[in-house]
Amino acid sequence: SVPFLVRLFPAVLTKFVYLNFLAFPFFMDLRQPELLLNNTISLYLTTEPGVTVGIWHTVPGSRGAEAQGKDQRWYEEALADAHPVIIYLHGNGGTR
User: Fold this and answer.
1) How large is the greatest C-alpha to C-alpha distance in the chain, in angstroms?
2) Which of 1, 10, 23, 33 would suit a FRET pair with 75, their CA atoms being 20 to 30 Å apart?
3) In the chain, how many H helices and how many E strands?
């Protein structure tokens, strides 16, 4: 009966495989990464009309002292300097 239901409702399979309807870890505000990680801020990119992607920008430990107390503008300018940028794509679980 399960294969029949999956065949009838394929979207159900993707929900159970990826579990993207769950926010894990529970009760964590991922919009404030600075509470969890040093030298990290939350940014949002609009990739196309109606689609917004939340990202975290973390500077390396070697720039940690420089990043203390800086605002979003400083972090955005840090993305444009000569240092390499590493993009880590962790998945689609809805938890960044």
Assistant:
1) 59
2) 23
3) 4, 2
For the stretch 15-41, pLDDT in tens is: 777 776 776 667 777 788 888 888 998
CA torsion angle 69 73 76 77 (round to 10): -90
Q: Whole-angstrom Cα distance, residue 43 to residue 57? A: 7
Distance CA 62, CA 82 (A): 14
Strand partners, 57: 41
Question: Given CA atoms 56, 57, 61, 65 in this order, what sign does their dihedral have?
Answer: negative
Instruction: Indicate whether this model's pTM tops 0.70.
Output: no
